[in-house]
Design brief:
By secondary structure, the protein is an alpha+beta fold. The protein is built from twelve helices and 15 strands. β12 and β13 form a beta hairpin. The chain is elongated, with a radius of gyration of 22 Å.
Length: 362
Amino acid sequence: MFIIKKFNFQEDKNSWDSFVKSNSEGHFFFQTDYLFYHKERFDDFSLMIYDRKKDLICVLPACFEVAEKPLAIVGVSTNDNNLQTLHSHKGLTFGGFVFKDKLSFLEKRKIVFAILEFLKNNDFEKLIVKPLPSYFQLNNEQDENIHRLLNDTKIESKILRVEANSVIVLPQSEIEYQQITYPNYSKRKKRNLKKAYQSNLRIEKTELATDFWKILEDNLQLRHNLSPVHSVNEIQLLKNKFPTNILFSLAKDSTNETVACSVSFVYQSTVHVQYMAATKKGKEINALDFLINHLIENHIVHYDKIIKTSPTRNFEYLSLGVSELRNNTEGNNENSINKGLFKWKEEFGAKTFSHFVYQIKL
């Protein structure tokens, strides 16, 4: 009923990208220029699914790490018990099945079953998938479909983890900001903003990651002993490839010193803050609060050159990301939430959305 093939970069790049760009679930990080910017870290095992008319109806961005590379060749099963785990996707914020628009629930169900059977026949033992959450999609109903699909009684699946993401519903006018959004801020957040405004801060955009990347690196190293997921060269490469989807913003003081910064990833209906940080001075004057508030209040103007779903439709959500403590050991959930960071986001009136990560045994 279906034709399933492993993605081939040379042969399939154009058809893959065309499918993703025309799809309501197709975000820029599913495009090949994003999928393969760090191709040396993963072995790709992305799949393309065609119907009996040979029309592309689904893609699955997926990979396994180089150390986990199986001996099996697609379509040829081995008998050496070399079972592997496939991830959708270890190099992306999200993964999952990207279905052609307007497919019925039962059609999607058949596709999922066919893919799982295909993976089983190619010596994969598990599929780990992190589907798109509802606020990243144009049609929220699709998110509910995928969770029902992955919890089907004919599939042996379990939830590996649930991540808490903080999301702000964006005001669609200045009046809405003044009457609804700002009143939802905490008293402390309002005090912080008052102090920030007294410091004569201003917001600028930049095209160069080198203008602020050291602030991010120093902040992550000092607070968490970590480095950004992207290097400065990688984020600049992605910015150059996706200039309307990645935005660099700076908060500067009266001496023109950059005191806070953010990297926004812009999706179809959502702006996601991928990185944000402040200098020591910026923290003293609440520059990051000032920057995030600017993105909330002025998103219609700040993102005015960004491609939206329609000329009359503004962005609906600002995602501030998860507040999970990295390197949290399995089974030890006592400190799995960074409470200080989580509270800082909630004080903007952010609501909590859950990100589910599933493991499917094949």
